[in-house]
Write the structure tokens for this entry.
Amino acid sequence: AALYSEFKEEDYEDWDAAKGAPYKVLTDTFQKIGNTTKRLEITLLLTNTFRRIIKRSAGDLLPAVYLCVNRVAPAHEGLELGLGDATLIKAIAQATGKKEALIKSQYEESGDLGTVAVSARHTQRVLFPLPPLTISGMFQAFKAIAMAQGSKSQDQKKQMIGKLFVSSKGNEAGYIVRSLQGKLRIGLAEQTVLTSLAHAVLLERDSTSGKGSLAERLEKAAQTVKQVYSLCPTYNVVVPALLEHGLDDLSKHAPFSPGMPVRPMLAKPTSGVSEVLDKFSDCAFTCEYKYDGERAQIHVWHDDAGKQKVQIYSRNAENNTSKYPDLVARMASCLKEGVKSAVLDCEAVAYDIQQKRILPFQVLSTRARKDVTVTDIKVQVCLFCFDCLYFNGRLLFQEPLTGRRQVLNSVIKEKEGEIQFAKAMVSREVEELEGFLNDAVAAGTEGLIVKTLDATYEPSQRSLNWLKLKKDYLEGCGDTFDVVPIGAWHGKGKRKGGYGSFLLAIYNPGLEELQTICKIGTGFSEEQLKELSDQMRGYVIGKPKKYYSYGETLIPDVWFDAKAVWEIKAADLSISPVHQAARGMADPSKGISIRFPRLVRVRDDKAPEDATTAEQVTEMYQQQTLVQAKKKSRRDMD
Ligand code: ATP
């Protein structure tokens, strides 16, 4: 709060209020953000930029926010930037009159096409200075580029990029290229953008309203905006609502509505039945099978013409509707009479209808990902429903699980092998719970999710009201880890030509760093290793990203861009002088590392930001220490 009092209007001579905010206002901010890793400083820089925009051309706030999150539409619309390097290299060469081969070799050397673009632009003679690029102009141009389709689209894209290039000045060309590549990566997380948006609106539009000190109001504003955005994840609604109505009653002006995915509630790991009983000693809970498939958030509603609409969203709010036409078709006959609209939380699981048996996740992953036609489907899927978030115009997030389950019962008509309720039971007896866990595993699921019966639905939270109990807890850590491969060492002997081992990292959202947690080199089949090597070769970059945190004594032969997410199993965790995961959290100066990691599977459904966090690693380390201490004291007593 104190830092905001030093806010100054910065002078941009190009800033003609009638023409809108110059793009340079943002790229200068990006540059400053890229030079720091301090989260507070990043928030401050971005807030002040948003404040300037609100003061002088508030209509540019929405495109500015989109440019900061590097998107041109809400995530669930699937309209993405992410142009291939080859197209961009051609566009840079054409627009600046440089040879493609030169651009390519400079790119290979520096690892950042943005820097190459800035220097190519810098050495180009400009005969007629063009008007400055604007924030809204850039947003429109990026959107048009993302939307271009058809046989001539590559040429159209190159032309559009060329035009932007010729008008760019200073650092702008670099950010144009990085944005188009879909890797702006200046260490700006979406949560920080939401915080800055809230702070800027509070300071410019709402600074006198509300109770408490400015610091308290800033915190509350950020919480409000994040909460509203998790239920209404589209800036097209949230930003205008903020500008028009401020922070009070924001949820009324940016409400949840079917058709917009909600970030799902997630569970915390536990190490065994006794931990569950300890944690839930004074509340009623239920256990459900933890099915091993893909999360499916199913939205059913009627459009203005009275036609039933169905949309299916993944764990990461991606639109999976075209992957599951069979489920879409099924919905009409699976809903009870009188159901006009509903949002169901389910797991889509591969299912053998003859044998009435759940099939492993690997079978589900063989299904095509997009534009599937019903006749081509070979893997049948059963939906296991476990929650209901919305029913006939009524929001259920604030209702306890017991109430939501009752509604779920009144929405779904169970049909074996097509749509079923998640198997559940209530007990406090250790033997019964262990028996149910064993049954769950025998039925082909991952274990159990234990849920408190009075808990509300907490979107995007890894909640203490949902505890997962996986069979893995019997043989190592309580849970698997989702890690990002950021480097690799070349293979030797039989593994020559591919990679022999990989450097893996977890995510620290506070520092916006990917922190190394272990090296993995065993447990792969040669075939699997070749497949992984082929996949990862496409992500090689010249040097490590600024936000990679690694030990100086563990430098891989090649670095990767943070793209892939792998799920790994661990024997245990230990304090490490080399690895940086959760540095300073469990130990004052050291990090945590995983011992004996084994690859479980590649997680195509997760982004690097969804990797296991430093906080989760610390919790698991502390949990493990606790369990070991208990075991030891039991042994001592015996
Ligand atoms: P994982 O790596 O185990 O998939 P995750 O981080 O994606 O973990 P978790 O918090 O571990 O998510 O577990 C929640 C996931 O478990 C949900 O996203 C859902 O896909 C799946 N799931 C299966 N059965 C249930 C259930 N009965 N209730 C809630 N989630 C369930």
